[in-house]
Write a structure and sequence with these properties.
The protein is mainly α. 81% of the residues lie in helices and 0% in strands.
Length: 280
């Protein structure tokens, strides 16, 4: 049971569930004719990529996590490093095999690019201010494009991919503030370490405002319906306003964790809003 718990924990199951749901919804929204088998294979392949990325990130962050997250499977000793690397290889390998065999060349390319980016982020790019954040946010946005590609309608996924990119960029910057102590001890130069917390909060706020303004465009262009607009206005933009105000007033560790979780919830609400905006 201990080993199973560590296995589940190191993959970050909530993040994996969001990835799975995102790909399913993106495919469902963009498909003219539903192919449930292909959609589920795509969602499972994307989830494996996400799980593998989380594992390799924990591998390279083990020293940092001894300070920031000592209860994670690797720094706590619940899982051996060799086991984690083996899982990473298997997850990534099977995701590539599934995409190549069932989903076509473009989908395979997205899986390969995402896997490579997640590895490069953990190995090197995390320590490059803002670049690492952009890479992770870009990979998150690719999940929507991936879902639209597997059903043959890539253009349908561009708008939600942009939204996912922006909210993920906000969350990555929040996590960097949260991880300052551990990152400094490992000589990792993230944006908050190089430019300070105040400037990072300003950047998060700017990205948040851009996102809120962007969410109105699909409604004004009649791409998504009124249900989308009402839902995104109340729940997604409501969360963004709260997050920005909260960060400006308080940047304690407790606040940062709350904000990070709220932004993750905002991603979920964004997926729901797009679903409502196209299917009702």
């Amino acid at each position: 049971m201990q080993n199973l718990k560590a296995l589940i924990s190191i993959t970050r199951p909530l993040n994996c569930l969001i990835t799975f749901t995102t790909i399913v919804v993106a495919s469902f929204v963009c498909a003219d004719i539903l192919n449930i088998k292909i959609i589920l294979i795509a969602a499972f392949a994307g989830t494996l990529v996400n799980a593998g990325g989380n594992i390799i990130n924990d591998y390279y962050d083990i020293e940092i996590d001894k300070i920031n997250r000592p209860n994670r499977p690797l720094p706590s000793g619940q899982m051996r490093i060799k086991t984690a690397l083996t899982l990473y290889i298997y997850f990534t390998f099977f995701a590539l095999i599934m995409a190549n065999h069932y989903l076509g060349k473009v989908a395979f390319g997205i899986v390969a690019i995402t896997s490579a980016l997640m590895f490069l982020y953990s190995y090197k790019l995390k320590g490059v201010p803002l670049v690492g954040n952009i890479v992770v946010a870009f990979s998150t946005g690719l999940a929507f494009l991936f879902g639209s590609v597997v059903v043959g309608n890539i253009y349908c996924g561009i708008i939600p991919a942009l939204f996912a990119f922006l909210i993920s960029l906000m969350r990555e910057l929040v996590k960097d503030i949260e991880d300052i102590e551990g990152d400094e001890s490992a000589n990792v130069s993230t944006f908050p370490i190089k430019f300070g917390i105040d400037k990072t909060v300003k950047l998060i706020s700017i990205v948040g405002v851009i996102l809120m303004l962007s969410t109105t465009i699909p409604f004004l262009l009649k791409i998504y319906n009124l249900y989308y607009f009402i839902f995104v206005l109340l729940f997604v933009n409501g969360i963004l306003v709260f997050v920005i105000r909260k960060l400006k007033s308080n940047s304690s560790l407790k606040t940062l964790r709350l904000v990070s979780n709220l932004l993750k919830l905002g991603m979920v609400f964004g997926v729901i809003a797009i679903f409502l905006g196209t299917k009702l």
